[in-house]
Amino acid sequence: MAYFEEMIIQGIRAYPPTTQTVIKFLHPLTIIQGNNGCGKTTIVESLNNICTGAVPAGMRQSFLHDLNNAKTQKVDCLIKLRFRDFKNREIVACTRMTNMMGKEGKNITKADEQTLKVYPNGGQKGIAISSKTIDFKLEMLNLLQIPKAILENVVFCHQENSTWPLSEPKVLKDKFDDIFQLTGFVKFIEKASKRLKDLKETYQKACIAHDGALAIQHEKQIAEIRLSNKKEELAKAQERQQEVMKEMNELTKALREASQQLQQMREETQRRNVTLAKLDGLRKQRSMLNVPEWSGGEEELLEMLREMESSREYRSATEQKAQLERKVKEFDRETEQVKGERREAEQQMTRASAMEMHRNSTAAALRELTEGVASEFGLRADVKMQQQLEMLGGEMKSEGEGRVRKLAAAESQLRAALETASNARLSLQIEQKTLLETMSKLRAESNEIENRLNAISSSQNEVPELRNQIATLERMLSEKAEPTTTEEQSREMDKKKRKLMDTITALRESIKSAAAWEETGRNRERMQKDKESEERARDALLSKHEADFMLLFARVMRDDPINEKITHIYGEAQKALSRQREALKNAEIALDRAQNAVKQKSDERDSLLNEKLELQEKIVQVTGDSEIDPDDVDWRHEQTMASVQSFRKELAPLEASASLYSKWAVETRQKKCCPLCERGFTGRGESEGVSKLAEKLADMSIRIPQESAELAARLEEEEQDERKLAQAKNYAEHIRVATRKWNDVKAEVKAAEKEVEVCKLRLDKERANLELMAKRAEAVNRIKADASLMDAHRSAAEKMGAQLEEGEHEWHKIGAQAVQQKQKEEERLKKTEEELEALNRRLDEAQKAASEINRITREMNELRDRILRLDEDVVQRAAIEERLQKCYDELRSCEGRAREIEVEGPKRDREVESARGLLQSAERETRAAESDVAATLHKINERRDRLTRMTEELDGLTRNMTNIDSVRATLAFCDERLDQLRTRRAECEHEVTRVGQAQDKRRVLSDQLMLIENKRSMAALEKELEELSGSEREQREVERKVGSMEQKRSDLVRSQGELDGQQKAVKDEVEELGARLSSAGMKAADEKFIHNLVRKKVYGDAVDDLQQYIDAVDNSMMDFHKLKMGKINRIVEDLWSSCYNGGDIENIRIMSEQAAETDSKRKSYNYRVMMTLASGAEVDMRDRCSAGQKMLACLIIRLALADTFGSNCATIALDEPTTNLDKDKVDAMAEMLGRLIAVRSSKDHLESGGKGIQMLVITHDKRFVDKLCLDVKPEYRYEVTKEGPKAHSTIHRIYVNGDTEVAAASQVLQQDEREWMGGKRRQVPTRKRKGVDEDVVVYDD
Fold first, then answer.
1. Residue 991 CB burial class (10 angstroms; 0-12, 13-18, ≥19)
2. I want to staple 421 with a disulfide (CB 3.0 to 4.6 A). Which of 116, 349, 912, 1153 is the partner?
3. Closest among 1059, 1328, 1274 to 133, alpha carbons compared
4. Are 50 and 83 in contact (CB under 8 A)?
5. Where is this region: Disordered (predicted)?
6. By C-alpha distance, which of 756, 752, 770 is closest to 585?
7. What is the rounded CA–CA span in Å between residue 202 and residue 206?
8. How far, in Å, CA of 899 to CA of 884, rounded?
């Protein structure tokens, strides 16, 4: 059960901004008394503000303390409430506001952070939650488990609105609608109905869009099928074209090979003719060389010619001959020029022949193509074919376009007809579905109305039985005996009871004070022990860390705060430790780097050493000398090179001398003279001398090759050695380079080893420093771990010592005496309580009798209420039956229209299918016509292009043709000129032969040499002629083969053109279909169909679900309203019968009447407060009751509303309940409130499951306060006054004995305020919390 315990106000309205005003709420009654305008109502406004966030009428600025009154620029305002939530947890809610002076002298109000502090298990430390992480207002409602409307209109009701239950009907309706949240429900249902209407319209549009998307998808499927077929056709055509292309390529390759073969044959024929001509010339030349053949060798003949040319006679003849030879050379040059012209003419002749053959074949192909096109299209072959084809293409195009336009117009008409039929069918389907939904709803509504009528009919049988039960109860009520106690006796017992309660209260206060002093004594003893314990604990911790303190400070810090200083040292130690670790890490890295450098350089040194050894091994392997020194390789290589050059110089003359000696031996035998000086041998020993010289020369020629071979062998050996040494020289150079590198690396290794030693020393030093700093850091960590605890022990000990010294004098003066009197007062209290218990038993017996009478009265009222509800149903029966008949009429109308649609539907379907079939046929005809026209036009254009290409090619060949006759004339002229030049050259040669007798021998020898050359040339030409020999028959066969291939190629070109035309037509259709399918509409057809299908399904389900939800909410709202109103009336009747002691009004209740249906056809209610008079008549209570009865009725209704809608909160505030009441009415009101508090606080009520009450009464009437104090006996009451020059409101607590004090805040609120003031509030979590509990407590009616 939630209830309020304590509240602090500061800076609210007239309450001072510098001091906190404390109010502690009592159970069951807290009285706040004060004159008008002193600030009593501000307390209720503050409670309402912290619970709901509501600010009184006006701006927040008027709710906060005035800056002018405070004479300051800023006022800090505070409302702090300590309460128990519905889980009995202690909660402290705090809201802080600020009123300050802004720019230009304007007041600025600002709401600061709001906090909730939860004490889950009654502990001293709470969990603070900020409004930054939760919704503060919602969380307050959750913790109190009460709606905001109940708090504002029931619990914290302002005095001006405290009698709203008996106000005018409109105000009453607005209040109850706010409490029931009917306005929100009605608005929700109106919005939902509007949304339902929109959804239905959207659903109809979705159905239309779905049918349209379905038609587009069907059209897309047809186009995809056609596209697939055309692609297959195109693939077959492309496959056939590839076959033709392949055959064409093969034929072209074979034709190229055959043409090359034919060209080679022609070139061979040409070379053979040239060779034959050369051979004829050589034969003629041979016939002219009338000299005997030389019997010796050609070299010998040349030698003799050289000897002859060196003679003087020959030189004179040579000059004459030179002139003749120059002429011969001129003839030769002219002959070569004429031969070049003849070769060029032969090439022109060959080209002209090939071009003539190509022109003839092209002309034949053109004639054949022209005749084929003429026969194919029915044209004339003697007229220019291109013009005829252009005219034919234009005619075919215009004719095809006209046909296609006609078919397209027919197709558009059919498509419009299909769309019309589809729309008609869609409209019919939508109407049919709407009718079915309407019929379903009408049937459901009629069934519901029939069930309700049946229930009304059956309920009429209950009325007599209910009236009998009421009569029985009335008899029981009349048979009840008179009360056992008179009214005078009851008043005496009440007076005695109050006197005993006052005595008990005084004794309890005295005992409580003594117990408090006793507890204070025990607390002082415990505090002393705790102080000593804190000091011992701190000394133990200091002893524990004595070594660490000595290490850090060289002393133990016994009297100084430790935490702050050690925290600073801790930060510096961590930074130094981090720096030292970084230095150590750098030293380790430097050492690793130096070691890696040593390892790397050592590996490089070893690698170089291994390289040197390998190179030395290679030198040994190359030279074969295991003892060779690499430094000697260069010298040995130079020596070997010198030997090779020397051997080569010696070998060259020997090879020339051998052939010379052999030649000289032959000349000696032939000429019988010395070969050098040409002196002969004389005398008898001529032949012997010749033989000796020849033999000697022969021996020398034989001996020299042997010497040459030996020298060559030695040269080869030296060359091999030279090559080996050259390779070894390269290795030796590498060894020298490696040696230099090895020496450098060796020095680097030594330097790196020294660096390693330096790094090791540095690393050891850094490790020692790190170890020292780590020890200091560990000492700091150990001290830091207990530093806050040691400071806490020191602070606690000092605080306890101060508290002990502060209360020492008061304890000895007052506390000891109060503890001694405690036992006597406890014995007196026990006796007084026994007397009070006996008196209470007598009063309880009287109360039980009254309770039984109240129970019977309550049951009678319930039965009367039941009869009243049944009567209301009977009154509404005619309207219900009329609505049922209306449902039946609408249902019959819908069924008739549905039957018409069922008949008309198949007819619409047949019309749509017929229109779709006609449209598809028209589309096929249109596509076929377009395809035929495109194929024909492509065929005509292809034929025209081929004719144009072949005509242009033939014209180009004709233009480039060379005149063959002129080429032949050029060849004949060249042959004639060559014959003339040969004749003149022969004459010159004959004249050369005839020059002088001295040159006859030279001429003969030259002719013999020429004859040798002639024989050699003729042999070469005959051999070449044999190689060039070929058959003319084979050439003719190849020419026929080439012609056949060209004819076949022409056929393939024609087939390829036809396939191109067919492919182009199919491609055009494929592109058109692809363009249609790739259009935005076709691309999105499937997605659009699925989207529209989903939309249709979703919106259809949404319409059904929303309709069901609206009906469920409407029915649930009616059931909820009926249930709550029944509960409210039961509580009102119980409280009225228990509290009202008059005899004129037996009971009151709240009547809820269903208002006329609005345009939205939703339920709304009107409310009246009815009272049942003693005569049994039930009348409207408004303006028919006294002020006291009005106030009591309003209070009871507010309590009933609080019980019904806030079952976990029993608090209610009464603001000036005695306004406009006279003295008697004030007394009656006090008596009624006392009786109400007694009933709600009684043991029977609480044990029966009822909730208690916490009433806050704010009044200015002292008589009313005295009366309440006599009846309820509160422990104290509050008095609010305004005093001082600033007219601040102050609150004093006044006890029963007349003592007065200013209430002080509880320890919980004091501790919370100290934490806030000291800045020690718990850090608010950064994450967003759901509430005080992680699982949110959401209030739900």
1. middle
2. 912
3. 1328
4. no
5. 478-498, 517-537, 1026-1063
6. 770
7. 6
8. 23
Buried b / exposed e over 274-302, threshold 16 CB at 10 Å, is bbeebbebbeebeeebeeeebeeeeeebe
Residue 707: both structure tokens together: 């010497």
In 10 A of CB 652, how many CB atoms? 11
CA nearest neighbour of 662 among 606, 703, 614: 703
Could you tell me if 43 and 1290 are in contact, meaning their C-beta atoms sit under 8 angstroms apart? no
Q: Which residues contact 1240 (CB under 8 A, 6 or more apart)?
A: 28, 1210, 1250, 1251, 1252, 1253
pLDDT tier, 1161 (very low <50, low <70, confident <90, very high otherwise): very low
Backbone angles phi, psi at 62, to 5 degrees: -75, -20
Give every CB contact of residue 1234 below 8 A, 6+ residues apart in sequence.
1267, 1268, 1271, 1272
The C-alpha R_g of the chain, in whole angstroms, comes to: 68
Question: What whole-number distance in Å separates Cα of residue 324 and Cα of residue 998?
Answer: 16
Measured between its terminal Cα atoms, the distance across the chain in Å is: 17
| 677 assigned to a ligand binding site | yes
To the nearest 10 degrees (0 to 180), the angle between helices 816-875 and 1085-1139 is 110
pLDDT tens by residue, 310-357:
766 666 666 776 777 777 778 778 888 887 887 787 777 767 776 777
Cβ-Cβ contacts under 8 Å for 1132 (sequence gap 6 or more): 1148, 1149, 1150, 1196, 1197, 1200
CA 252 – CA 259 distance, rounded (Å): 10
Report the pLDDT value the prediction gives residue 580, as an integer from 0 to 100: 79
Q: Please give the DSSP secondary-structure letter assigned to residue 181.
A: T
Q: What is the mean pLDDT of residues 1257-1275?
A: 86
Give the tokens for residue 545: 């860390």
Contact at 8 Å (CB) between 814 and 527?
no
- Residue 30's pLDDT is 92
The model's pLDDT over 921-937, given as tens digits with 9 standing for 90+, comes to 887 787 778 778 777 87
* Number of CB atoms found within 10 A of residue 729's CB: 19
Own/partner pairs, 310-318, CB within 8 angstroms, 24+ separation? 311/998, 313/996, 313/998, 313/999, 314/998, 314/999, 314/1002, 316/996, 316/998, 317/995, 317/996, 317/998, 317/999, 317/1002, 318/999
C-alpha distances in angstroms, 1339 versus 103, 618, 972, 1235?
A: 43, 101, 129, 32
Q: How far apart are CA 322 and CA 772, in angstroms?
A: 117
Q: Read off the pLDDT band of 738 (50, 70, 90).
A: confident
Residues 773-786: tens digit of each pLDDT: 887 778 877 777 77
How many angstroms separate the CA atoms of 53 and 95, rounded?
A: 9
- Per-residue confidence at 725, pLDDT binned at 50, 70, 90? confident
What percent of the chain is predicted at pLDDT more than 90? 1
**Token pair listed for 1051:** 């056929």
Residue with tokens 């003729």, as numbered in its chain = 1018
674 is in an annotated binding site: yes
Residues sharing a CB contact under 8 Å with residue 470, sequence separation 6 or more, in sequence order? 860, 863, 864
Mean of the pLDDT values across residues 1213-1217?
Answer: 85
Higher model confidence: residue 884 or residue 1163? 884
Q: Please classify residue 1302 by burial: count the beta carbons closer than 10 Å to its beta carbon, then call 0-12 exposed, 13-18 middle and 19+ buried.
A: exposed
| Cβ-Cβ contacts under 8 Å for 928 (sequence gap 6 or more) | none
DSSP states along 402-436: HHHHHHHHHHHHHHHHHHHHHHHHHHHHHHHHHHH
One-character DSSP codes across 537-567: HHHHHHHHTHHHHHHHHSS--SSS--HHHHH
Q: Are 567 and 787 in contact (CB under 8 A)?
A: yes
When comparing pLDDT for 134 and 671, which is higher? 134
Q: Are strands 127-130 and 1254-1259 parallel, antiparallel or unpaired?
A: unpaired
Return mean pLDDT, the chain: 77
